[in-house]
Amino acid sequence: MYDRMQTFTQEELSRIHDASLEILKNTGVAFNEPEALEIFQANGFSVDGKIVRFTEKAVAAALDAAPSRFKITARNPEKSVFVGEDDWVFVPTYGSPFLVTRTGEQRPGTMADYDTICKLVQTSKHIDMNGYKHVEPSDVPTRTAYLDMLFSNIVLCDKPYMSSTDTRQAARDSLDMAGIVFGGKEKLIDMPVTVGLINPLSPLQFAEEMAGSIIEYARCRQPVIILNMIMGGTSGPVQLPGLFALMNAEILAGLVLAQLVGPGTPVIYGTTSCPTNMKTGAAAIGSPETYIINSATTQIARFYNLPCRTGGSLTDALVPDAQAMAEGALALSTSVRSGANFILHSCGMMGTYIGTCLEKWLIDEELCGIVRRMMAPIAITDETIDIEAIQRVGIGGTFLMDPTTLKLCRTAFYDMDLYSKQDHARWTAAGARRIDDVASEKLIQRMGAYEKPAIDSGAESALSAFIQERKAAEGL
């Protein structure tokens, strides 16, 4: 297949790999979690204080142990998904502190906002998984907010979901809650049911909660996404090849820890790295370099035969305007076309991760459907070429009333739910509404049509009891 985006040669990928190995061997990576250091030391690694150094052999063994593809079992088994190789999923935005209106106002997120997004995921034709931390709810205690978010993830939606790695305790609780739903924590070892997000602290560090969460998830063989957000020119090199080498070293270090704890633990190779806006010092995710990084990340992951995570509809815009749509479409389509398997921030993200906009959520959701259709293979066969139809219509005829057209007219082409395909007269007669106006109306309709998916009453009661017990233990 021909693609004008740069495809690295094996020699170039090997050069990045070798540079990463040199970093891991000579500089090392700091792990700020005592048990992680004990695990490395017990397995013969060089540990100097908090700094761990890695051999090529250890990295190769970890890469051999990690699967290239795995299944995430959903509460509703029909909605289970595969991640890796040719299989990929769309997942909503993650980590926004604010809810952003379509006119640009920001307010702190609430649990009601979080629940709305869980319901949107449940009713979506295009979003495959529920995420985590759609917004950070400000109206529940911060220390235990993750419990409320996980309860909503599980009860309001029966698709696969992401869990918490906010602290090591949150990771433990996430796995305990998954055990309640899926018949016992001991069963998780043979059945991935959730995914945890691990962020290295660039350059070359893992915070205590991140290393601890790797250990907890790997003990239950639950998948982790190891992804960094290196800002080129500040927390990482200003030149992209150097950024790739640093990015790769950090991810490989986390992968090694996961495989030492739980051989075969699925690890998704990922990044949210981007350039620094040298005028402001802020991240610039809506930039061409971000799309290059996304493409490079998928190629490096494929070099290791690992599933890959990159960004979806990323934007620096603060309202769902033309800038937001252009940046989002470029980022999302680049990730999918390049071969990413886990597309996080597929819908709803505004202002460089600062907010979630519900109208943009719906607009991006439609974009996900368009990109999925664009990626769907077409069968080139005698039946699809259909020379007989061409001969029937003949020179200068019309295919409008041809039997094949009549048979397939409702299914042959992608049918837009949100994007306008009206002519100017009909658009004007319908109120001359912008797409964000239409999205606001669709949002009300979606919430009105939502039905809570069935869940075993015993499991829901057990989850509620677990949450109350954990909150009481925290003095809440």
Textual characterization of the structure:
- The chain is an alpha/beta fold.
- The protein folds into 2 domains: 64-375, TIM Barrel, CATH 3.20.20.480; 383-413, no CATH class.
- It has helices spanning 10-27, 34-42, 56-65, 111-122, 145-155, 168-181, 208-219, 240-261, 288-303, 322-338, 358-375, 382-385, 387-393, 403-408, 424-429, 435-449, 457-473, and strands at 29-31, 46-48, 51-53, 69-72, 81-84, 89-90, 98-100, 106-108, 161-162, 194-198, 205-206, 224-228, 231-232, 267-271, 274-275, 308-311, 342-344, 349-350, 355-356.
- The protein has a 7-stranded parallel sheet with strand order 6-17-16-14-12-10-9. The protein has a 4-stranded mixed sheet with strand order 2-3-1-11.
- A hairpin with an 8-residue loop joins strand 4 and strand 5 (81-84).
- Helix 1 packs across helix 8 (240-261), helix 5 runs antiparallel to helix 17 (457-473) and helix 10 (322-338) runs parallel beside helix 11.
- The chain is globular and about 80 Å long.
- The mean pLDDT is 96.
The tally of strands reads 19
Helix content: 40-55%
Shape call: globular
What's the mean pLDDT score?
Answer: 96
Strand content: 5-15%
Distance between the termini: 57 Å
List the helices and strands and how they pair.
Blueprint: H1 10-27, E1 29-31, H2 34-42, E2 46-48, E3 51-53, H3 56-65, E4 69-72, E5 81-84, E6 89-90, E7 98-100, E8 106-108, H4 111-122, H5 145-155, E9 161-162, H6 168-181, E10 194-198, E11 205-206, H7 208-219, E12 224-228, E13 231-232, H8 240-261, E14 267-271, E15 274-275, H9 288-303, E16 308-311, H10 322-338, E17 342-344, E18 349-350, E19 355-356, H11 358-375, H12 382-385, H13 387-393, H14 403-408, H15 424-429, H16 435-449, H17 457-473
Parallel strand pairs: 1-11, 6-17, 7-19, 9-10, 10-12, 12-14, 13-15, 14-16, 16-17
Antiparallel strand pairs: 1-3, 2-3, 4-5, 7-8, 18-19
